[in-house]
Amino acid sequence: MARNFRAAMNPRLPSSFSSLCLAGFVLALAALGAGSARAEKADRGKPFVFASDKGGRVDVVNQRTEFIGNVVLTKGSLLLRAERVDVRETSDGFHQAYASGATGKPVSFRQARDVPGEAIEGVADSLEYDTRSDTVRFLGNAVVRRTRGAQVADEVTGAVIVYDNRTEVFTLEGGSSSPHPTGRARVVMMPRVPAGEAGASAPELSLQPSTALNPRKPS
């Protein structure tokens, strides 16, 4: 169901996501203390809240909600801005959201992490969010950053970026829709602050090679 939903809402995506990975690579963003710095756990129990300039449509029978026109979607610390947002609820209570931007105005995403003052922020032409797998897919001209206050700690760019909140794995792929001039996927890692120095009280993260070639797909 999730695969069909993505294909219907974004026909630019290939039917097999694994084919893209032949031109890409996978990186893991893992905490030094296992499980100590994932996305804000309190967000999971928070409701979706929608607001838009042009209004929307709520289909109770088919469990589908659509909004258009400078849409703002929130769920706890999660903040999503897009021109159009389409959310479907599955029969077992999970949600699949597809957001698309307007010309010159990409979709933006932000969510706090469990480390105080840190967040994951990103922009892309379109975005998919799945609460079952707790993954965010940034599609087209994608740029995702881990921020610490007002500072950028890490930055990844590519044609497609998939972020798994549970495992903290980023899957990056290059291609013609990458913001990099040559179409490459790109990673920038800022120097880590040595332990004991000022401002080093929070656990630090590192980018490491992943053992997986493909992101985990929703069942």
In short:
The protein has 219 residues and is mainly beta. It has a domain at 2-38 and 94-209: lipopolysaccharide transport protein A fold.
Overview of the structural elements:
The chain is mostly beta strands. It has a domain at 2-38 and 94-209: Sandwich (lipopolysaccharide transport protein A fold), CATH 2.60.450. It has 2 helices and 14 strands. The protein has helices spanning 2-9, 17-20; strands at residues 24-31, 49-51, 56-59, 64-75, 78-89, 95-100, 107-112, 118-124, 126-130, 135-148, 151-164, 169-173, 186-189, 205-209. A 6-stranded antiparallel β-barrel has the order 5-6-9-10-8-7. β3 and β4 (64-75) form a beta hairpin. It starts with a helix and ends in a 10-residue tail after the last strand. Residues 1-37 and 198-219 have low confidence and may be disordered.
